[in-house]
Design brief:
single chain, about 70 residues, OB fold (Dihydrolipoamide Acetyltransferase, E2P), four-stranded antiparallel β-sheet, globular
Length: about 70
């Protein structure tokens, strides 16, 4: 797989919480470092996502926000 995104992290699916329209997916990319995403349930099904399966986290964003109290 070749992508233009530079932020590509290999990992293992930790959890998949399916809903009727969207699915919450958490991928562990390093010990103690998890990345969470919400994707369509159709995409989760197409990818065959399940806990323990290898996956890539690809981050391509035009902006990143950081906030503090």
């Amino acid at each position: 797989m070749k992508l233009s995104a530079r932020n590509d992290f290999a990992g293992t699916v930790k959890t998949v919480t399916r809903g009727p329209v969207s699915t919450d997916v958490t991928v562990t990319i390093a010990p103690g470092i998890d990345v969470a995403a919400v994707i369509s349930t159709a995409s989760a099904d197409r990818l065959g996502l399940a806990a323990g399966k290898a996956a890539h986290v690809v981050i391509k964003a035009s902006s990143v926000m950081i906030g503090v109290d």
